[in-house]
């Protein structure tokens, strides 16, 4: 440890013993007790370092503040990675040791109102600024504390920005607008980090200003640019094991809040049954996201989720056929670029089960028509969102 680090550690210990905040006056006093007299600029420098560590995100603050960063991942004291939209990059940021990473993870968990210790060695929470926090402590994380932070952008992208970024192909914005105008119920599928939440936020911003959007989410990440949004978020049980609010609870409450658009941020459990039931009882234009490797896998994915609520296969497919019209599937290519790869419509096969049929496939020139194109146009025109 260098002399400067020794000094910082001594000041840390002194402030910790007093339970004091790192104000300039207290830092200066602690420095004098160490036999060091520093100028105002040097004292303020020490204050900045200590405040960042004690009430901020420590060495990660500059990364989290960068506007292009979407994820910050710590796998070891000397392994800090970021994603700026083009895939993971290793940074030069370093922690002093594994203990510092653990302290930061535990402090961030405390800020989020969660517990993180040997008895409860992982946490999934949202920080006050909206950043998504996930952390796992050793020995569950074998090599040391793992910390994952997903940055929530303060505003949603505009549709034109997604076209410019290549997420939406040229001319594809007209098709997306037609889907919304026709009030078609849809799901956005894709893998982790494919941009599902980003696309959904953007599309919700296109909903008419006279419509009421009710969001139900595990972690409040959707930020649609819309004047009438009601946001509901799940809650874990408290220390006594009571007070838990599930996503299924939120979907049921949302139905009593007069939604024009019912939105489930991520469908990943028994709440799928309530969502499908809602979309079958006059709640047109509902939507959500779901993890799936391909659009064709979405029916099977929903079938598996429905089984957790005791819904059998035939009943699930019957509800799905009437509830959801379109699947937008996102992929993330090897260069880290997120894009809508396919648009599928849902149809029943000869056995009565729901399958997806490609209607549009992304190409450099725009969406290319696929076998389900006619069905997609029919759905849009039926709802008043004609598109050619």
Folded structure, characterized:
- It is a single chain.
- This protein has 388 residues and is an alpha/beta fold.
- It has three domains: 1-54; 56-152, Beta-Lactamase; 159-382, P-loop containing nucleotide triphosphate hydrolases (Rossmann fold).
- It is built from 13 helices and 15 strands.
- The strands form two sheets. It has a nine-stranded mixed β-sheet with strand order 9-8-10-11-7-12-13-14-15, sandwiched between helices. Strands 3-2-1-6-5-4 form a six-stranded antiparallel β-sheet, covered by helices on one side.
Short structural summary:
The chain starts with a helix and ends in a 6-residue tail after the last helix.
Task: Please trace the helix and strand order, writing H or E for each element.
Answer: HHHHEEEHEEEHHEHEEHEHEHHEEEEH
Strand content: 15-25%
Strand order of the largest sheet: 9-8-10-11-7-12-13-14-15
In CATH, the homologous superfamily of the largest domain goes by the name: P-loop containing nucleotide triphosphate hydrolases
User: Radius of gyration, Cα only, in angstroms?
Assistant: 24 Å
CATH class call of the largest domain:
Alpha Beta
| Distance from first to last alpha carbon | 67 Å
